[in-house]
Amino acid sequence: MSAEIHKQFIPYEPKAGEEYMNPQQHAHFRKILEDWKAELSQDIDRTVHTMQDEATLFADPNDRASQESDMALELRNRDRERKLIKKIDETIANIESGDYGYCESCGVEIGLKRLEARPTATLCIDCKTLDELREKQVAK
Ligand SMILES: [Zn+2]
């Protein structure tokens, strides 16, 4: 599971002169985000059930140890998915308030293609690149 969307959808084809982030575009991205969220929620439900089913399965301590690290991994994945769902909810709220699709940092249009690849993007590609450069410098 990654922050990249992997679900199939029909790319939005704007008509000539179509206004950016008009109601049709909002509806398009809202659908992508809601489908993605539903998919993540199903993943989380499945994880919970699997863990409950396996919880008492192994009596051997070695099996138990690997089972515990599996579970730790599952829990981390689940945590990531929950954070992603939170981010999706925030993004849907941005659509409702009309802020969606504009760079948080400089205010330019993020662009339909970039948003389809990363529907939760809040920065344009330039600000994102700058941001990553700064992060790398901090990490040194
Ligand atoms: Zn920007």
UniProtKB/TrEMBL annotation:
Annotated InterPro entries: DksA_N, DksA_RNA_pol-bd, DnaK_N, Znf_C4-type_bac, Znf_DskA_TraR, Znf_DskA_TraR_CS
Domain DnaK suppressor protein DksA N-terminal: 25-95
BP GO terms, sorted: regulation of gene expression
Keyword list, A-Z: Coiled coil, Cytoplasm, Metal-binding, Zinc, Zinc-finger
Location in or out of the cell: Cytoplasm
Zinc finger DksA/TraR C4-type domain location: 98-129
Superkingdom of the source species: Bacteria
Positions annotated as zinc finger (dksA C4-type): 103-127
Coiled coil: none
Residues holding Zn(2+): C103, C106, C124, C127
GO molecular function, one term: zinc ion binding
Keyword Coiled coil applies: yes
Signal peptide annotation: none
GO cellular component: cytoplasm
Family according to the record: Belongs to the DksA family.
Function text: Transcription factor that acts by binding directly to the RNA polymerase (RNAP). Required for negative regulation of rRNA expression and positive regulation of several amino acid biosynthesis promoters.
Complex and partners: Interacts directly with the RNA polymerase.
Name of the molecule in the record: RNA polymerase-binding transcription factor DksA
Organism whose genome encodes this protein: Sulfurimicrobium lacus
Lineage: Bacteria, Pseudomonadati, Pseudomonadota, Betaproteobacteria, Nitrosomonadales
